[in-house]
Amino acid sequence: MANLMEKIVSLAKRRGFIFPSSEIYGGFGSCYDFGPLGVEMKNNIKRTWWDEMIKEHNDIVGLDAGILMSPKVWKASGHLTAGFADELVECKKCHRRFRLDEIEENLPSHHSAKGGTGSDGCPECEGELTKPRKFNLMMKTFVGPVEDEAAKTYLRAETCQGIYLNFKNILQTMRLKIPFGVAQIGKAFRNEITPKDFIYRTREFEQMEMQWFCQPKTAPKFFDYWKKERINWYLNLGIKKANLRVKEVSKKELPHYAKRAVDIEYKFPFGSPRFRVEAGWKEIEGIHNRGDWDLSNHAKHSGEDLRYEGPASAPQSGASAGKYFPHIIETSAGADRSLFAFLSDAYQEVKGGRTKTTKAAKEIEVLLKLHKSLAPIKVAILPLVKNKPKLVKKAKEVYQALKPHFMTQYDEIGSIGRRYRRQDEIGTLFCLTVDFDSLEKDDLTVRDRDTMKQERIKIKELISFLKEKLNE
Ligand code: ATP
Q: What ligand 1 atom has the least distance to the C-alpha of 190?
């Protein structure tokens, strides 16, 4: 769809999903705030992910570790060295900065951005580029009142480190046996060189990560298992198959900790006009086989024994015996990036309109066909007209009765057709209209977002009717 990116950004702002940060001060580069509908939707994404991990599996437990940790963690993990640095090039003419890999990815193969190659350099003005230099992505901060080297630490760049640090605590307190997983959702920070593309790449974002601890020789099998599980999660939540793909990460591009990695990619509605990329296949989640990199490194640096104690001798099943470092399969998803993907995927325009009965039928109607688990508002209560006190009273009674059960909105402003369209645009699943018959028959009309079919339902049966529809 033409200009889908602009349409999503505009809808997100107009309807209270996502606002640019610090707007009254002129904004604050590439930072965003999630508005009333955005926070509902993001919470729904996180809850769905959490339920999938914790409730659907017997052998995964949760954790909420802190954002601040000892700086020693980041030394051991390799984040303070070249492994967690992007190569930065700057245009000598317009002074814009770029990640070298982004430029190279998009240039025809016979061109190279390295070291400044004249007119093929800067993607914006074709100016000459500087030689690439390494730029570490860790966000520094100070703990305590004195801003010296001893007080320096970092905001976490990934949530998973907190899981490795608590490996022993979790193992002992929960009396777990391998294989098992630990799931965590939380903020992460990276001093990205080029945050851009709306909420796709920001310096503050939320991750949903699960670390699966297993015997070394079972790691490849579990890698395949989790890859499939995670793809299905997106598909089951309505992402179109054509917009999702898996990319094997080449040996050259593997992160410093990984033995094998695949990226789950979504076809985002942005690209670079200069590179003539209409839509961008970009990562939304990484699946990594991290081997024993994390536990063995933390053991080495901390002096703690972080090995797992297997049976004394290998049983017939061939399980690893004695003490060993479990291998880790990681599923690392972004809550913000997936929200962006879900929004883009759900966005539809209907030319000529769906609601044929109103004047507005000539215009383009927007429909946000979000999965029922993700839609921020499940039910809207609409009195047919607002100047009939009895209707309004009845509608407000229904609103109060439903509110504790479902995310519900009450709306009495504008024609009924306009109100349906406003709700369609934010993906509300059911619109309930209270009309004159409702006063006599104690029922109302339930309109389904997707089929637009309307049914009369008795008010006393509403909650169970809606719960059934929503699978609650
Ligand atoms: P990229 O190549 O896009 O920088 P990455 O490979 O560094 O991403 P990972 O370290 O694998 O990303 O992080 C796992 C997930 O965390 C990503 O798939 C993405 O969903 C999310 N994520 C990482 N960096 C950002 C960011 N700057 N803004 C928003 N989400 C992010």
A: 27
CA 165, 166, 172, 177 dihedral sign is: negative
Q: Which protein residue has the closest C-alpha to ligand 1 atom 28?
A: 201
* pLDDT per position as a tens digit, 368-381: 999 999 999 999 99
Q: Is 211 in the pocket of ligand 1 (CB under 6 A)?
A: no
Residue 461 has pLDDT above 80, yes or no: yes
List, for residues 277-311, the tens digit of each pLDDT value: 556 899 999 999 999 999 999 999 999 999 999 88
- The residue nearest atom 22 of ligand 1, judged by CA position, is 334
Residue 422 near ligand 1, beta carbon < 6 Å: no
CA of 83 to the centre of ligand 1 (A): 15
Report which residue type is found at 364: I
- Is the Cβ atom of 192 under 6 angstroms away from ligand 1? yes
Which tokens sit at 19?
């606002």
Residues 343-355, mean pLDDT to the nearest whole number: 86
pTM of the model: 0.92
How many angstroms does the Cα of residue 334 sit away from the middle of ligand 1? 7
User: Which pairs with CB-CB distance under 8 Å and at least 24 residues apart come from 280-283?
Assistant: 280/197, 281/245, 281/247, 282/200, 282/337, 283/247, 283/337
Q: Find the mean pLDDT for residues 176-196.
A: 94
3-class secondary-structure state, position 365: strand
Ligand 1 atom 6 nearest Cα = 286
Chain segment 106-156, per-residue pLDDT in tens: 655 444 444 444 346 888 888 899 998 888 899 999 999 999 999 999 999
Q: Which two tokens stand for residue 235?
A: 């598909």
Atom of ligand 1 nearest to the CA of 206: 30
Ligand 1 within 6 A of CB of 284:
yes
Provide the strand spans (E) within 303-344. 308-309, 323-324, 327-334
pLDDT of amino acid 317: 63
Confirm if 383 and 443 have CB atoms less than 8 A apart.
no
Nearest CA to ligand 1 atom 25: 201
Q: Is the peptide bond before 326 cis (omega within 30 degrees of 0)?
A: no
Tens of pLDDT along 191-209? 998 888 999 999 999 999 9
To which residue do tokens 């590179």 refer?
275
